[in-house]
Amino acid sequence: MKTVLIYCLSLIAILVTVYCWYQAQLAKKNHANKKRLLFLLSSLVSTVSAFGLLWQSQGREFGTFFVIFHISWLAWLLILTQGQVKYTNRIQKNKKVPPAEYGNGFKAVVIFFAGPVALFLSICCSLLIARYSLEGLADQWVVALLLVPVIWGAMVCWFVADKKIIRPIAVTFLVILISVFLLS
Amino acid sequence: MSVLKRITPSKRLVKESMRGHAWIGLFFGALLYLICLSGTLLVFLPEIERWEQPKTEEYLSIDSQNIQKAIAQMQNKFTEPISELYFIYPSENLPKAHVSANDMEWWVDAKGNLTEPVDTQLAALITDLHYYLHLPKGWGMILVGVLGAMMVALMISGLLSHPNLFKDAFKLRLGDNRHLEQTDIHNRLSVWGLPFFFIISVTGAYIGLFGVAITVFDWFEPEHNTEQMIEVVFGEDPEITQSEPTINTELIEQDLANREPTATPIYLVVHKPGTSQQYVELAATLPGRLVYSEIYRYHSDGRFINDQNLADGSWSRQVAYSTYRLHFGQFGGLTTRLLYFLLGMAMTVITVTGINMWFEKRRVENKWYAMWQGFVWATPLSIAIATFLTVVVSVSGALTFWLPLILLTSVAVVVYVNLGPMGLTQLLSIMKHLSFGLLFLVVFAHSFTHMQSSWHWFFSFCLISVAILPLVNYRKILFSEKRLH
Asked: Do residue A145 and residue B214 have CB atoms under 8 angstroms apart?
């Protein structure tokens, strides 16, 4: 019973955090800086309380993730109260569909480099980062394994976003060369 | 200059990131949708298994002598050598034990007798869809890992293409401007759920790409091969040269209870059963710990060998062994799983609204749009059809899902081409109603033939409630409408 009560209390603390952020944003809009600061400080206090309560009842590992995850749905709950449904009688103009920016050849190049080549880069790069920042072998490999999707994701973004495809390609080759040289 | 302005990306970066975001989303959107939806359902995998095959009696504890009996009975079923024999303890999610070896699985009753083979085809269908997309296991796992990494890519590009991240944090505009509506739903769900989505994507990619990454690591580590690297991360197996033929589970359980009184056993593995190298591993969860389990090793006669230091070893070993529970929400009880289900649903909605936004922004309504809409609503219907065929008709396999999915998506395109947008809207509505109707039928057909306990009726009610979600008009229930001239 006590655990349930503490859990509920921590959820309220998280909700207060989100509400304070919302009020701080409104205060910013109205140029009420003192009020804004007050709400930001309150949000900090309620966040710390939420962590404290959940750590106490669920342990540090579970508690940390609970705070992070519960913020999402509690914020959505608050947003739902702000939602508006608007209907207009205006006729919406049809936008012109922009013509395709790139040819299929270009797209194929992007997919090739953003796919296997960037994956290889991300594996080399993450191993290099881990090797030069950590000592234990297991630590190095686990960190590298967790870094791979993040570096790969970032590289894929760059490949598909940059208009001058030559830039990510050049950096990819440079980083692969340096990584392979330093790793082997 | 304020901090917010400093971290706001430039207009050029926003435009380029938006283009990248759209590219990746369009390219992987359909597969991401399947992964997110199946992953959301998998949060309740033990319950689905329990609901699917409810014949055997349920219990929460089993005597160590009966465990020994079940292991011996399972061993007797094989003439060929077994590499590992698993005994999975009953738990609150799945209150009956089962044993498995060499791809064969049997339920065990409280007296240690093997009652019937585990036949949870529906659970296997959803699991295989999420793990491998029903492709050959090796390639499927890699593809799903790639999708995890692409999810990370979408998060990075999404953040960079959203300059008003803080300003718009609480905005929700619904109405006849479909693009604005889809954008607000997409952005609010994704921004506030970002920590969860990031953790799920990174852990998913870690699990899926483990094999590929470790193979490449191997090239740069001349002193270690792949197997040795795994041993360094997760710990080595003990080398046993002599072993008693029978396993003394009573002494093993007693030792664990003395050594770690708060530990809860989840499974027991007999390695190389029946040989002189036989030994036992007992995996047990520790309260408040995210690591999947600590593994305690024993000789067959119950003498303690060592533990794998998964819960108290190096931090990297603990992190590596925490990814599974973190990815599937198997910690903290029912509350966590409900939370994972809600956040998983949000992730699914984000993939759909993301692609909808692309179409709405360009006001594109063509056969591709019809195909996408058809695919989105054909997926739950195909899951319902597969459930019906598997549970009621006893016809199972990946085709029970993929065939209806392809067929129904094609029907959506044909209907759009011949009857236009109105026809498509009607078809989508029919699909939603059919999904609900079919699941309702399955639940009752299954319930009246199998169900004894109130839990099964409760779970059936939950299934129907989930199927009803797409039929609810949330705008009417939640919001007041404003009509502007």
From this structure: yes
Q: Which residues are CB-neighbours of B66 under 8 A, at least 6 positions away?
A: B108, B110, B111, B112
A127 touches chain B (CB under 8 A): yes
Is A66 in Cβ contact with B332 (below 8 Å)? Answer: yes
Tell me whether strands B481-484 and A84-88 are parallel, antiparallel or unpaired. Answer: parallel
User: In chain B, whose CA is at the least distance from the CA of A59?
Assistant: B288
pLDDT of residue B451: 64
Per-residue exposure over A92-126, b if at least 16 CB sit within 10 Å of its own CB, e if not: eeeeeeeeeeeeeeeeeebeebbeebbbbbbbbbb
> How much is the pLDDT for A88?
67
Mutate to test the interface with A, among B155, B217, B349 (most CBs of A within 10 A): B217
Does B8 have pLDDT greater than 80?
Answer: no
> Which residue among A70, A75, A85 places its CB closest to the CB of B175?
A85
Q: How far apart are CA B435 and CA B430, in angstroms?
A: 9
CB contact under 8 Å between A144 and B177, yes or no, is no
Token pair 């093997």 is found at: B114
pLDDT of residue B39: 96
C-alpha pair distances (Å), A101 with each of A105, A107, B14, B21, B182: 12, 10, 17, 15, 24
Q: What is the pLDDT of residues B328-377, one digit of tens each?
A: 988 888 999 999 999 999 999 999 999 999 988 887 788 999 999 999 99
What is the share, in percent, of chain B residues with pLDDT greater than 70? Answer: 96
Residue B74, helix vs strand vs coil: helix
What integer is the mean pLDDT of B450-479? 82
Cβ–Cβ gap A58/B332 under 8 Å: yes
> Of the ranges A14-28, B170-184, B471-485, which one carries the lowest mean pLDDT score?
B471-485
Q: Name the residue ranges covered by the structural domains of chain A.
A: 2-82, 104-183
Q: Does A55 touch chain B (CB under 8 A)?
A: no
CA–CA gap between residue B206 and residue B213 (Å, rounded): 9
ipTM of the complex: 0.90
| Under 8 Å between Cβ of B120 and B53 | yes
Cβ–Cβ < 8 Å for A46, A14: yes
Show the tokens assigned to A130.
């881990």
**Quick one: how far is CA B175 from the chain centroid?**
34
pLDDT digits (tens, 9 = 90+) for B146-156: 999 999 999 99
How much is the pLDDT for B353? Answer: 93
B463 and B446 in contact (C-beta within 8 Å)?
no
Q: How far is A90 from chain B (nearest CA, A)?
A: 7
- The CA distances from residue B342 to A120, B90, B299, B324, in Å, are 35, 26, 44, 19
